[in-house]
Write a structure and sequence with these properties.
The complex is a heterodimer of chains A (143) and B (114). Chain A is α+β, with helices and mostly antiparallel strands and 143 residues long. Helices cover 36% and strands 28% of the residues of chain A. In chain B, strands 1-2-3-4-5 form a 5-stranded mixed β-sheet, with helices on both faces. Classes of the chains: A alpha+beta (143), B alpha/beta (114).
């Protein structure tokens, strides 16, 4: 028997003003699936970091570009796909920050991808600059 | 929408900022402006109370990183208090407790300054 997949989509302009709405959208769905508060907070933060990166880096602060948040759930996985049409990046060039060095040098910013990778079970980037960039975040649903 | 609010209080040359709501990439500039004001007014002893803060992202954490060096250079500090476990977990995940003093109550932070 095919496993049941549910899809939910939020399409909004790329403004940081909408981060709160995105977080509510994703946390409500995560709660429905049955995640505990700690996991809901992890998903909330990872999605916020991914969307903030889209606004700040892919669109360089232009708040009228398309930002898509698609949530797909099946009995095992809670998957969030964040898509944009902005400037891409090479995910292979993103290095895991050395946190000790980071803190002693008191750097600002650049923690988003590190957080996503720490908070989620799977993080995957599909980058086609100007066409479509996607970040896929997956959290396994406790069985 | 709950947004973000900052209430500022000054007593015995210590500034306390009470944060309320959500501190993310949208609202971080408000906190930046408030800390900027402290530096302009040469108020280098700052306590940030997180009791009513429901959410923080790395954009919010970044604000503290942007000011701590200058504040400490002037003999002050930013001390953090009253964090919920949700907020503390984000600080802890990034190793921030090694860099900032975090207290359960405002009184403990005040005592450390005096």
């Amino acid at each position: 028997m095919a496993k049941k997949v549910n899809k939910y989509q939020l399409k909004i302009p790329s403004s940081t003003n909408h981060l709160e709405l995105i977080r509510e959208f994703v946390t409500n769905l995560a709660r429905d699936v049955g995640f505990d508060d700690e996991r809901i907070s992890q998903i909330e933060l990872a999605v916020d970091e991914a969307c903030t990166n889209v606004v700040k880096h892919a669109y360089k602060g232009d708040d009228r570009q398309p930002l898509d948040v698609l949530v797909k759930t099946d009995p095992k996985k809670f998957k969030i796909i964040i898509s944009d049409k902005g400037k891409g990046f090479n995910p292979k060039l993103i290095k895991t920050p050395d946190m000790k060095k980071y803190l002693t040098e008191m750097r600002v910013g650049g923690l988003g991808i590190y957080l996503m990778q720490t908070l989620m079970d799977e993080v995957d980037f599909k980058i086609e600059p100007g066409k479509r960039n996607q970040v896929q975040l997956v959290k396994y649903i406790p069985q | 929408m709950s947004g973000f609010e900052i209430a500022q209080l000054e007593k015995n040359q210590i500034v306390t900022l009470h944060l309320k709501g959500f501190l993310d990439a949208h609202t971080a500039p408000d906190l930046e402006a408030e800390l900027e004001k402290c530096i302009q007014n040469k108020q280098y002893k700052v306590i940030v109370n997180f009791q009513e803060l429901g959410y923080i992202s790395s954009a919010g954490l970044g604000v503290f990183m942007g000011f701590i060096e200058e504040i400490r250079k002037n003999g002050g500090d930013i001390k953090l208090t009253n964090m919920s476990s949700k907020i503390f977990r984000v600080f802890d995940l990034l190793g921030f407790p090694a860099l900032y003093e975090i207290f359960n109550t405002e009184e403990e932070a005040v005592q450390k300054f005096t």
